[in-house]
Amino acid sequence: MVTRTTVIALLTLWPIGLLLVVANMEVAEISAPVFLALDIGYLCGSLLLLRQASCGRDRIATILVLSGVGLFFIVGFTGIPTADEPDLMMLNTAALLGAALTLNYAVVALVWRRRHSPVMASVLPMIVLVIIGTTLYIANLLARFAVVFSGAAPRQVAVEDKAWVAYEYLRGLTAPPDFMGYALVWLDLLQLAYVVCAFLGFAAISRLLRGQFITDRVGRIIQVAGNGLAAIIVIGVGCAAVLPREFDAVPAWAVFVAGIPFMTTLLPFVLGVALLRGTALAPHRHNSQLPADTATPSSRP
Hints:
Elements: H1 4-11, H2 13-26, H3 32-52, H4 59-78, H5 86-113, H6 120-149, H7 153-163, H8 166-169, H9 179-209, H10 216-242, H11 249-258, H12 266-288
Helix pairs in contact: 2-3, 2-4, 3-4, 4-5, 4-12, 5-6, 6-9, 7-9, 9-10, 10-11, 10-12
């Protein structure tokens, strides 16, 4: 059985992974060997905790939890992707591609699990949106490989600080971009579109699973969080584009933070923990709902 303590411990894995990534980028005192030890310890601790939670009960739930843990484990090494370090950028890109495809698989599997749900008709458009968004995002990631393989990495380095981060290009570029700058803006917009689709998609899935696989309370929290995060990006893009420059920094930064790719693993991670908890409790709920004369074989005539 997944205890409350285990659930709380599982929920700390995502913020701990985020702190590790940020610490490796911002804290100069953390050397490469020290971070390697911390990162391996994080991964091993996560796997042990999942084993304690009897993760084999629900394979999709385990995948959802590990999508975030695995992504943090890899991007902790790579840091912020930049064409100035093409090898690390390709490793970062491969990790993001794997995470996106894994989440897309989990979405399809969860929808299939609840294919006979009465709310399926209202949820299905959001699921289709996730698949479309993932396809666009794959185009973004493949373009990163193309930049490196074509030898255009130096051209990207020259413009990526302005044309590849939302808090810069959403406020308006200070000079007309060249083709590389124009392409990077469009590629990053594809990424933002994917993140919005992922938020909306998992908000819809939480509605689909509520009541049977996860509790109503958790389902509502995930649904509100997904819709809220998607709204932050959509509204932030609009505000950053139309507000005067002295007022557009806050919405541009809000879009940048909410649109970071590993944010797409937050809701799936929470949903995965909720599914592990719900799956562990399911046999107990089932037994508690059995009539008295069928609860045990000895009660039968």
